Amino acid sequence: MGARCAVISVIVLVCLVALAVGLSGHGEGLRGVHRGLKRRGPTVRANVTGCNVFQGSWVRDDSYPLYESSNCPIIDPQFNCQMRPDTEYLKYRWRPATCELPRFNGLYFLLKMSGKTMMLVGDSLGRNQWQSLICMLSAAAPQSKTEFIRGDPLSTFRFLDYDFSLSFYRAPYLVDIVSVGGKRVLMLDSISGNAWRAADVLSFNSGHWWSHKGSLQGWDYMETEGATYADMDRLVAFGRGLTTWANWVDSNVDTTRTRVFFQSISPTHYNPLEWQDPMAKNCYGQTEPVSGWSYPGAYPDQMRVVQAVLNKVQNPVYLLDITTLSQLRKDGHPSVYSGDLSPDQRANPDRSADCSHWCLPGLPDTWNQLFYTALFA
């Protein structure tokens, strides 16, 4: 009887060790996994054993994509690229210059976030990432009971078996927009973030809407320091709005329980001269990334604003710096294959191509792999 118990104990121990190794997904890459979500100091770069994971290149990997779009419970038509005749864009993996990224392990993610809440706050690029993360986690736990509550501005997807809520809050400018006399006023000094405070992990993004003009502009006037403006330098406005956000983080986030991320500017690919292709019109017809680790085009001016504000914020905010690695992915956009477009629009890629958002599966899956690394490595 004693010998039998000893054998059983050994078997249990072996199983537990195997489970721990399996959950790590990539043993070397996940050393020092946090117990819970502990506070870190101010960080603007992700490091895995001293490696800058945001600097590298794209390599072909036939084990990608990480999930099938047909198996994902939530992909907006805007991000659904199943009408694309090519599939090569799905077969690329981000490889940092001096290390390997831990492979995304959705089951490990869900176990670590069990009983917790995560909220992404921002514009449609944030929604792009949010839906990608739902797809990646659903692929890891296909039998998990789920609940989806779609709303505006708040939508929530819950993995019920893990008591984990993953939400998206639409706030393209982060700061408030109020209606005054039938006009939309962008309040550069005001932010209403009560719905964000309770999250265990907060990830913010903003940028694209600050440059929109004409029919795409989301406001009629701007207000700051009690003065109203019909317009102003957009980088100045972005800086004032982002400073208001940073002040909100410093005043309202309890960093002993909540980790804060800011995702850098996601690039567009409307100008092929940026990647030195004078024959192209935009991202339409692009089927492979820019080779190498540097992008020939300019780095977004908005990133100077982001860096300046993050250098002043007092609470720890982690910059998920996806800008350059995304610039290299001129092939990753829906182009004319978005499910939102009509046949006539698809026939006119010069005017209709979406070179701003990203296909799912696709590039946002790598954003979430980096997010995963920042959270747990």
TrEMBL record:
It is a single-pass membrane protein. One of its GO terms (molecular function) is O-acetyltransferase activity. Pfam families: PC-Esterase, PMR5N. InterPro entries: TBL, TBL_C, TBL_N. It comes from the Eukaryota. It is found in: Membrane. Residues 1-22 form the signal peptide. One of its GO terms (cellular component) is membrane. Keywords: Membrane, Signal, Signal-anchor, Transmembrane, Transmembrane helix. The keyword Nucleotide-binding does not apply. Its main location: membrane. Residues 50-100 form the Trichome birefringence-like N-terminal domain. Residues 101-373 form the Trichome birefringence-like C-terminal domain. Belongs to the PC-esterase family. TBL subfamily. PANTHER family: PROTEIN PMR5, PROTEIN TRICHOME BIREFRINGENCE-LIKE 9-RELATED. This is Uncharacterized protein. It comes from Amborella trichopoda.
